[in-house]
Structure formats: structure tokens, C-alpha cells
């Protein structure tokens, strides 16, 4: 029932169009449209969760419940846009916009959180659907960032309290009977009007009654007050390094006797955070310590041990503001940040050396330019600190100019240096803004083979930012150059091109561009290439993304891919059989001609075998295809 309810909500939200929101004012109308587009991308996920069955695990059931909860909140938000607009005075418009921003950020946070906690193995989620989920999560995170510095910790605490409230609602209502909550709320909220407003807005979009919302607000504020109470029996000193010791002796005495709230401490250093940043798991750390952790090759969250989906560090401005406020109240010297956005770099001579190298990129001497580009290529590969310093020193724009160098080695060093710099997420946007896409594509088309390989890898790296998928895909010649490398490049070049094309084709419009650029010919070749390790897997992965687009689906069938896909059902590895079956099923859905074709080619025997011996997902796909074939024969 939960899966059916989720599917119904997704269909309802996805069906909302601009005409339905004609009466809505901005920004509500735009927010509703963007939310509807993102939720529509979850239809495949909901279908696969439904296929996985009911599940018996407590965690699985809880996540299903959270998912329904999040989708219901999304539906309520869209309903706000469909309702007739209420007349408001010009003076009230700012408040209305702020309220919409809070509710929209909560809805996107809730959806993103549920998707982050989704156990892929429990629900047997396929790789291609997981790619869609990751894309939606990234888009939701960006939407949250656009809505300003509303502390998502408030959302998290609200969610936890509400979950507890729902499970104990009977006992809570009995305890509160005859004891009005309003006086307590008035006492607690004198200094927390903004927080109270946020909770009321979030409660409204969550369908929580006003009386319950007041109780939750009371609990949340009480918790915040308790967090700030000094525990004089357990003094903990505020750790400061010698170069930060600017406070008076009296200040140090105060700090020695003050307990630092646990939420203000870095989980790694256990010290008061000066530049708190959020990782993909939602945990907050001191930037310098988590950056060192990542630079050492770790890809898990130190506190939760969950895998980091990416290594982006998002500044937690709200927590930093609370820390500064707390320091001021306690009379403690506030911790200071580095000017380099919190990355504690050992600068000095290193910065001077890097600035010299960057100047040499514009030298009149070819040898000096080539040598500087080679050195920067090496430095950018070594550490995040170097990538930040190089970008700050102006290396990106100078390297972009060198992409047009007639010296092929200089060109190779420049494109590889940009590839290495792009590993740091904030540099991705700087590289695109510096106008690097067109010259990188020129290198991809006409450079030496190693330069072409690294140009393809750079395009893949830059395309990890969703907006860049659109920018790169719409740049004339970009996808064509990747298809050419896929067809005639070195083994590594073909692999880099395949990876870049797959990532670009996650964006719907790029699927058609890739097909029109001739991607199907090399993909069909790769399906037959058992000599190159991974070629078949790469081809199937790209085809599984393309086949979701109607025009591409028709083109795949016309390219005579079906016989090769059926051959893979008979003789390939388990993963390839699974992907081949999934693509065949997509080709045959609502297409009697393709279905008849696989019947004529004798697909029943390998499909029957696969339905018994394949992976769980392969069994589902094969069984579904056999059912379609059976219905066709009956007709």
C-alpha cells in the first residue's frame, strides 16, 4: 500500500504544469514547477521499490514511512501553488516570499534526506535508477543552497521530535489534557520568534495541527536552551593555538570555566569549530580537519562511517553564527577563520612559488610556459590545498589560454592541469566561467592522444555539476568529439569518452544529441567486443540511459541492437545479462514490433534461463519480458 500511495503522489505532482499554477505568484510558482520536475524523476525509483516487495526490516519500513511523509509534504507545497492567490499588501510580500522559502527548503531537505538514507541493496535498486536518484539529490541540495541560511539542523530536530510525537501521540495527549500549552509557549518564545515562525511554517506543510506544532516548538526551544546551559561541574577549556591568543587574562579565565556545547565541537579535534562545514552525510566538522581526512584518501564520514557520496564541503553559516553569538555571550575571544575560505594552508614561501609559476604561464618563452604548466599539473594532482592556492593565484584563466598553444606538449600539460584542478568542486565553476569548454573541446578534437584522453576526463569531471551538463551538451561539437574518441581513440581514450558521454546523457536533451552525433554505431561495435575488458559493460550502461528517451529508443531498435542484446543473454557475465534484459524490456514496453522481433529471434529460452538463475533484478526483468511475450502469443 505504501508503494502504491507513493506512486500515486509522484504521478499527481509530476502532472502539475505551468497552466495549473497560473494563479500562483512568484517565487511560489517557479518553486512548484522545479519541485514537480524533480519529483517526476523519482517515478522509476518508486516502481523499483514497489517491485522489491513489502520488506520486513524495521529500518526498511521506517524509510518507506519517511518517503511517504516527504512526498506528502511536497504535494502540500504544490497545492499551495494551485490554490487561488490571496491578495496581500506590498508590505507583506517580503514576508510571504520568506515563508515560501522556508517551506520549500524544508520540503527539498526532507526529500534529499530520505533519498540519502535509501538502502540500495534492501530495495534492489538498479544502477541506472540509482544514477537518477543521485542526480535528483544533487539538484535538491542546490535548491536548498539557493534559499539562504536557514539552519537545516532545525529541520532535523523538528523531524526527530515529530517522529517521536507520532509514535507516542496517545500518551502525549493524555498528559497535556487540561494543561494549556500557550503560557509555556509565550515564556519560551520571547527570544525565539524567528524559530517559532519556522516551526509553524514547517508544521503547516507537514500537515501537523497547530496545537501539536506549538508543543513541538516548545520541546525544540527547550532543547536549545538546555544545550546552552553551562555545566560548571564539568569545565572544559576552549583550546586555542598561540597565534590566536588575543584575549585578555580575564577572558582566558572565563573560557577555562566554560563548557563548550557538544554541537559546537568538531567531532575529530573535539575543539570549538572556527569554520564548520557540512559533508554529504549531514555531519558538521572543522574544515581543516575534515579536509585532511579526505586528503589522506578516506571516503567515509568519520562520525557515522557512512560512505561520502561526494567530497563537497558546504559552509555551515548558521552554526558559525551561533558559535560567534555564544562566544560573545560568554566573553570568549571568537575563533578566527583563514581568508582562504577556512582551508588552513601553509602559505608563505609556497604561495610565492605558486604565484611565480602562474606568472610564468604567460611568459614570452615557450620553454618557461611549458615548464610552468607541467609543474602546475603536478602540484594540482597532489592536494586540495594546492588546488585552492592555484585557483586563487589566477592559474585557471592562464591555463585556459594555453589550451590554444600550437605546442602539443604545452597543450597536454594545460588540459591535464585543469583536469586536476577540477577535482576540487569549487574550481569546476571557475573553470567553466573562465571559458574553458570550447578550447577543451578543440583539444579533444585535434590534440595529441594523451591530451585528448585528459580532455575527455576533464569534461566528465566538469559535468558532475548539473548545470555544466547543459552547458557542455549545448556547446557545438562537444558530444560529436566525444563520440569520435569513443569510436577511434586509444583504449583509455575510449573509456574516458564513454564515462563522459554516460554522465552527459543523464540530462534528457543530451540523449538525443548523442544519438544524432552517431553514438549508436560505436556502442553496437562495443557490444561485440569481448577482447576489451569492460567495453560491453560500458556500452550497456550508456544504452540503459539512452533507452529511456522515446526518440533514442526508436533509434536503438533501428540500429539492430536487439540481436546483439539477445546474444548477451546467452553468453555474457551476470551483470551484462541483467543490463541487456533491462534494455530489452524498455525497448519492448508498448512496442509490439520490438516484442515480436525478440520472439522471432528466440529470446524465450535465454530469458527463461535468466528468470531462474540470474540476479534478482535480472529475474524480474526476464519474467516481465516473458509475460509480455506470452500476452503477444495469446493475441
UniProtKB/TrEMBL annotation:
Residues 231-258 are annotated as: Disordered. The keyword Repeat applies. Pathway: Protein modification; protein ubiquitination. Residues 243-256 have a biased composition (Basic and acidic residues). Residues 259-333 form the U-box domain. It holds the Pfam family ARM_PUB. One of its GO terms (biological process) is protein ubiquitination. ARM repeats lie at residues 394-436, 477-519. It comes from the Eukaryota. InterPro entries: ARM-like, ARM-type_fold, ARM_PUB, Armadillo, PUB12-19-like_N, RING-Ubox_PUB, Ubox_domain, Znf_RING/FYVE/PHD. Its EC number is 2.3.2.27. Keywords: Repeat, Transferase, Ubl conjugation pathway. GO terms for molecular function: ubiquitin protein ligase activity. CDD domains: RING-Ubox_PUB. This is RING-type E3 ubiquitin transferase. It comes from Oryza barthii.
Amino acid at each position: 500500500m505504501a508503494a502504491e500511495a507513493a506512486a500515486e503522489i509522484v504521478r499527481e505532482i509530476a502532472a502539475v504544469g505551468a497552466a495549473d499554477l497560473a494563479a500562483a505568484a512568484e517565487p511560489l510558482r517557479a518553486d512548484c514547477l522545479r519541485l514537480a520536475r524533480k519529483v517526476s524523476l523519482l517515478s522509476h525509483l518508486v516502481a523499483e521499490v514497489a517491485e522489491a516487495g513489502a520488506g520486513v526490516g524495521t529500518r526498511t519500513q521506517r524509510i518507506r514511512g519517511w518517503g511517504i511523509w516527504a512526498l506528502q509534504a511536497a504535494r502540500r507545497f504544490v497545492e499551495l501553488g494551485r490554490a487561488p492567490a490571496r491578495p496581500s499588501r506590498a508590505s507583506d510580500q517580503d514576508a510571504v516570499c520568506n515563508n515560501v522559502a522556508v517551506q520549500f527548503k524544508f520540503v527539498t531537505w526532507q526529500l534529499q534526506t530520505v533519498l540519502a538514507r535509501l538502502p540500495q541493496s534492501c530495495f534492489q535498486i538498479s544502477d541506472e535508477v540509482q544514477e537518477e536518484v543521485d542526480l535528483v539529490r544533487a539538484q535538491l541540495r542546490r535548491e536548498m543552497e539557493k534559499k539562504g541560511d536557514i539552519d537545516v539542523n532545525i529541520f532535523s530536530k523538528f523531524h526527530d521530535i515529530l517522529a517521536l510525537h507520532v509514535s507516542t501521540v496517545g500518551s502525549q495527549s493524555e498528559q497535556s489534557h487540561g494543561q494549556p500549552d500557550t503560557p509555556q509557549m509565550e515564556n519560551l518564545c520571547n527570544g525565539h520568534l524567528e524559530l517559532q515562525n519556522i516551526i509553524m511554517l514547517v508544521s503547516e506543510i507537514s500537515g501537523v495541527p497547530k496545537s501539536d506544532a506549538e508543543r513541538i516548538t516548545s520541546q525544540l526551544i527547550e532543547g536549545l536552551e538546555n544545550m546552552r546551559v553551562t555545566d560548571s561541574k564539568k569545565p572544559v577549556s576552549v583550546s586555542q593555538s598561540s597565534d590566536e591568543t588575543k584575549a585578555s587574562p580575564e577572558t582566558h579565565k572565563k573560557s577555562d570555566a566554560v563548557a563548550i556545547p557538544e554541537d559546537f565541537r568538531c567531532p575529530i579535534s573535539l575543539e570549538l569549530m572556527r569554520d564548520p562545514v557540512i559533508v554529504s552525510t549531514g555531519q558538521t566538522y572543522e574544515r581543516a580537519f575534515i579536509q585532511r581526512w579526505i586528503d589522506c584518501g578516506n571516503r567515509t564520514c568519520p562520525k557515522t562511517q557512512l560512505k561520502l557520496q561526494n567530497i563537497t564541503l558546504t559552509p555551515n553559516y548558521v552554526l558559525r553564527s551561533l558559535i560567534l553569538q555564544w562566544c560573545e555571550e560568554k566573553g570568549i575571544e571568537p575563533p578566527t577563520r583563514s581568508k582562504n575560505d577556512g582551508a588552513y594552508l601553509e602559505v608563505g614561501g609556497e604561495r610565492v612559488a605558486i604565484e611565480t609559476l602562474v606568472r610564468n604561464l604567460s611568459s614570452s618563452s615557450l620553454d618557461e610556459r611549458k615548464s610552468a604548466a607541467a609543474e602546475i599539473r603536478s602540484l594540482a594532482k597532489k592536494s586540495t590545498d594546492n588546488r585552492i592556492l592555484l585557483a586563487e593565484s589566477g592559474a585557471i584563466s592562464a591555463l585556459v589560454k594555453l589550451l590554444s598553444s600550437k605546442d602539443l606538449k604545452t597543450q597536454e600539460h594545460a588540459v591535464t592541469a585543469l583536469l586536476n584542478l577540477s577535482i576540487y568542486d569549487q574550481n569546476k565553476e571557475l573553470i567553466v566561467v573562465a571559458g574553458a569548454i570550447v578550447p577543451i573541446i578543440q583539444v579533444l578534437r585535434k590534440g595529441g592522444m594523451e591530451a585528448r584522453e585528459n580532455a575527455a576526463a576533464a569534461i566528465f569531471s566538469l559535468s558532475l555539476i548539473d548545470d555544466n551538463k547543459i552547458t557542455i551538451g549545448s556547446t557545438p561539437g562537444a558530444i560529436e568529439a566525444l563520440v569520435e574518441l569513443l569510436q577511434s581513440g586509444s583504449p583509455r581514450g575510449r573509456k574516458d569518452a564513454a564515462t563522459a558521454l554516460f554522465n552527459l546523457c543523464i540530462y534528457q536533451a543530451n540523449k538525443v544529441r548523442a544519438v544524432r552525433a552517431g553514438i549508436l554505431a560505436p556502442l553496437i561495435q562495443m557490444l561485440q567486443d569481448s577482447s576489451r575488458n569492460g567495453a560491453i559493460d560500458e556500452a550497456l550502461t550508456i544504452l540503459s540511459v539512452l533507452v529511456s528517451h522515446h526518440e533514442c529508443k526508436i533509434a536503438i531498435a533501428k540500429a539492430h541492437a536487439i540481436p546483439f542484446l539477445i546474444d548477451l543473454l546467452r553468453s555474457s557475465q551476470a551483470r551484462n545479462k541483467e543490463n541487456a534484459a533491462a534494455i530489452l524490456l524498455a525497448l519492448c514496453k508498448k512496442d509490439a514490433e520490438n516484442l515480436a522481433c525478440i520472439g522471432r529471434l528466440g529470446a524465450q529460452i535465454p530469458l527463461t534461463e535468466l528468470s531462474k538463475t540470474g540476479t534478482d533484478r535480472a529475474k524480474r526483468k526476464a519474467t516481465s519480458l516473458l509475460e509480455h511475450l506470452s500476452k503477444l502469443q495469446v493475441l
